[in-house]
Amino acid sequence: MNDDRNRSWPDRDPDPRRQPPPAGRQGPPPWARNQPPPGDAPRTPPPGNPAQPGQPVQPGQPGQPPRAPQNRPGTPPPGFRQPPPPGTRGGRPNPPPRREPELMTHHVHNGTADDGYDARYDAGGPLDPDDVYPEEPELDKKGRPVLTAAQKKKRRWKIIRRSIYAFVGVFIVIPAIAFVITYFSVDVPSPQSVAQGQSQAVTYLYADGSPMGKDVPSGGNRQILTADQIPDIMKHAAIATEDSSFETNSGFDVTGILRAVYNQVTGGTGGGSTISQQYIKKATDNDAPTLTRKWTELAKSFKMNQTYSKQDIITAYLNIIYFGRGAYGVGAASQAFFHKDVKDLSFSEAALLAGLIQQPGRSENSKVAHDRWNTALDRMVENHYITEADRKAAQFPTPIPLSEDQDDSSAPYRFISDQVQAELEAHGISSDQYYSGGYTIQTTIDKKAQDLAEQAGADALAKQSDNRLLDALVAVDPKTGGVLAYYGGPTTVDVNGQKQKARDWADTPQNPGSSMKPYDLTAFLKMGKGINSTFDGRNNREFDGRIVRNAGDSDSCSEQCTVAEAMKISANTVFYDMVLNVTKQGPVEQAAQEAGVKTKDNGGGNSQIDISNNNISLGGGDTKITPADQASAYATFAGDGQQRDRHFVLKVTNAQNEVAYEAQAQPAKSAFADGDPELSKQIAGNVTTALEPVIGFSKLKCPSGHECAGKTGTQQHTKRAGEPASAANANAQTWMVGYTPSVSVAVWVGGDGDLALHGKGSTPIFGSTIAGPLWQKFMTNYLAGKPAERFSQVSLIGDAAPPISPPSDPNIPPSDITPTDNPDNPGNGDGNPVNPGDPNGPGGPGGNFPSFPTHTPKPPKNTPSGDPTDTGDPGDTGDPDE
């Protein structure tokens, strides 16, 4: 910086006020150097100059004495100079201001120049008062500046613009880059490699790890078909049913994806997967509900459509997709359902196969099959693959019956494998994955128990003259819920000289008859009433205009019949009265479900319980229970009122010996008193106390050293027109369900529907004639050598009951524990409410139960053999009713 005050800056004139005075002259006093004289006062010559003519000599000039300062009123103090008028300098106008040159230290050079510089300052003009003292902006309630309409619009468009940029970046640019990376990093598996994984057999093991058998899918040995070997009608049926946009999409359908999202949000049904996506899903065996899986699936589907033709893609899809019946690929499915080559399929048959792709696990459900067939045909019309005339003329192509698996080693365990497969599907291993993992399944089945069940079941019917008789046996462990033995009858039947898969009778619901009465008693006990309570147990009692009968005098009781006595002799009138007037039907249904009976609407089982009328009290009408559910429910009584769900699987490992599923120990549930295990135990114990005498009364024995309890059951046949008179006394279903503390066993013997069945010598069958001895043979052989067992002791509910006579003692001969035996009336201890004169009553044409005879001559007794399953006619069991 130049500090010489007497020098001017470049491009500036010297300041005359700063010029040195001429030699010999003195400058003005310091107080007056910067202060011009008043505009109207005479100008004072510069100090040091002689006075000019006509000008007064100022004080302080040479030759004049100095004048003392004076302060006159209204004058400024000494040293004060009056400022010049605005815009003037010494009475003259100010010259235009010139800015000093900027130094390197100024803002303009160091990058911090003030953008708010006001040019008016340099111009010398007055500053705007608003610029000097700006007003505070107007604020809203939240303390924010209030914007004008223009400012608001500008701000709004700024937000929208930035949002669009963010949306494009997040949802278009970034996904596009990621998709390209994924596209080049994935491969599309070939149908040949997929088929190799789908052909693996499933190996079953017993609970001890010993081999049980293998299950190979019926389509496991099929070949991969070429595009020429699959007719267009089959391809068109699959396209119309599964992906109508297949011919035009690029592997995924945006509208389909949006539709699937909408269905998910609104609770609708239907997905958005294309045929290409379904192929990738099946080929990779990955159905995880994750975004990563879906993203990779989209990339692979797109790549597949860029790599292969549409004909190749639909061919690959039809070669690996699952159709049901263990058939992977359309070639195997065509044989499994129609025994035809694919090239011979009609459009109607192709429609059924295409329709089953969506629900292959329900291929044997007639209603589902018809619905899917209709859907496929309708969509084929919409896509112009068939005409309306073809649609109207189409007939449902009934599939051939299920045939026996070609692998003989799996046939004896077919019903077990079906139960295992259903159970694993509930745990995430679906039916179309079942044969693709090379699984080894360790079951809960006890090898000894299973062998005994199959042998006893076959022997029980071998000596019977009625070839319509069927049987089933299920054994359950009360302590775990695991199934120890499962016999649903022969796995195949002979139909017109051809073997076909038989029905699983262990999982088929039947009328339980009097084996329903323990649930009646359970509901009664839950009300705080006990087995010492009394009812009128006489025969031929009338209820609401209906006559209810016992089977005969041997099954009748007095007017003061205790519930315990009524259970022992199976008095119908007592339990019909109990449910109708005390417990009502709903609590009986609840008690059965709490024990373990799984109905369609409660547990997803096959059993059904009808509470619309009082037939439930005696196990008739539309109340039907499977043997498997009976074994599970009675296991709850055996397990001190602690209920555990029935299951077949212990562990599943895949081909790499990795654990795919392992059953966890089930926490016991207090069946009959939620949160109160002691009360539930007491209720179950009272049921057991009432059921123990039934064993001896039915001329059955407990296994040596083991206490046991149980109940027989019989459902009478309804005589039809044209049948012989003996059909009126025939029975259609019989039961024996009983247990020890370590095993619960349900045995059913009956026919396929309401048939007039007979035992040896054309005598009616009862729960105690075939089912009872079959139960006894299994229990005796299975528990042989096992430690002795006794039931838990509990106090009686309600009033103290008198001793129940006779007790169940395996050491007492049956003849000594049969207190009543009317040789003139074999009756039916599980008899049903009957009113032959009431067409709308249970025993009339409009009811559910036929009438029972009041008197039937008893056939002569045969000499019982040493085989406990061969007890001869009803007279050999002591109580032919049960």
TrEMBL record:
<feature type="compositionally biased region" description="Pro residues">
    <location>
        <begin position="62"/>
        <end position="87"/>
    </location>
</feature>
<keyword id="KW-0645">Protease</keyword>
<dbReference type="GO" id="GO:0009252">
    <property type="term" value="P:peptidoglycan biosynthetic process"/>
</dbReference>
<protein>
    <submittedName>
        <fullName>Transglycosylase domain-containing protein</fullName>
    </submittedName>
</protein>
<feature type="compositionally biased region" description="Basic and acidic residues">
    <location>
        <begin position="1"/>
        <end position="18"/>
    </location>
</feature>
<keyword id="KW-0511">Multifunctional enzyme</keyword>
<feature type="compositionally biased region" description="Acidic residues">
    <location>
        <begin position="128"/>
        <end position="138"/>
    </location>
</feature>
<feature type="compositionally biased region" description="Low complexity">
    <location>
        <begin position="863"/>
        <end position="874"/>
    </location>
</feature>
<keyword id="KW-0121">Carboxypeptidase</keyword>
<feature type="region of interest" description="Disordered">
    <location>
        <begin position="1"/>
        <end position="147"/>
    </location>
</feature>
<feature type="compositionally biased region" description="Pro residues">
    <location>
        <begin position="803"/>
        <end position="813"/>
    </location>
</feature>
<feature type="compositionally biased region" description="Pro residues">
    <location>
        <begin position="19"/>
        <end position="50"/>
    </location>
</feature>
<feature type="transmembrane region" description="Helical">
    <location>
        <begin position="164"/>
        <end position="186"/>
    </location>
</feature>
<keyword id="KW-0812">Transmembrane</keyword>
<dbReference type="GO" id="GO:0009002">
    <property type="term" value="F:serine-type D-Ala-D-Ala carboxypeptidase activity"/>
</dbReference>
<dbReference type="InterPro" id="IPR023346">
    <property type="entry name" value="Lysozyme-like_dom_sf"/>
</dbReference>
<keyword id="KW-1133">Transmembrane helix</keyword>
<dbReference type="GO" id="GO:0008955">
    <property type="term" value="F:peptidoglycan glycosyltransferase activity"/>
</dbReference>
<dbReference type="GO" id="GO:0008658">
    <property type="term" value="F:penicillin binding"/>
</dbReference>
<dbReference type="Pfam" id="PF00905">
    <property type="entry name" value="Transpeptidase"/>
</dbReference>
<keyword id="KW-0808">Transferase</keyword>
<feature type="region of interest" description="Disordered">
    <location>
        <begin position="798"/>
        <end position="882"/>
    </location>
</feature>
<keyword id="KW-0378">Hydrolase</keyword>
<dbReference type="InterPro" id="IPR001264">
    <property type="entry name" value="Glyco_trans_51"/>
</dbReference>
<dbReference type="Pfam" id="PF00912">
    <property type="entry name" value="Transgly"/>
</dbReference>
<keyword id="KW-0328">Glycosyltransferase</keyword>
<feature type="domain" description="Penicillin-binding protein transpeptidase">
    <location>
        <begin position="473"/>
        <end position="749"/>
    </location>
</feature>
<feature type="compositionally biased region" description="Low complexity">
    <location>
        <begin position="814"/>
        <end position="838"/>
    </location>
</feature>
<dbReference type="InterPro" id="IPR012338">
    <property type="entry name" value="Beta-lactam/transpept-like"/>
</dbReference>
<dbReference type="GO" id="GO:0030288">
    <property type="term" value="C:outer membrane-bounded periplasmic space"/>
</dbReference>
<dbReference type="InterPro" id="IPR036950">
    <property type="entry name" value="PBP_transglycosylase"/>
</dbReference>
<feature type="compositionally biased region" description="Low complexity">
    <location>
        <begin position="51"/>
        <end position="61"/>
    </location>
</feature>
<dbReference type="InterPro" id="IPR001460">
    <property type="entry name" value="PCN-bd_Tpept"/>
</dbReference>
<dbReference type="GO" id="GO:0006508">
    <property type="term" value="P:proteolysis"/>
</dbReference>
<dbReference type="InterPro" id="IPR050396">
    <property type="entry name" value="Glycosyltr_51/Transpeptidase"/>
</dbReference>
<feature type="domain" description="Glycosyl transferase family 51">
    <location>
        <begin position="218"/>
        <end position="380"/>
    </location>
</feature>
<keyword id="KW-0472">Membrane</keyword>
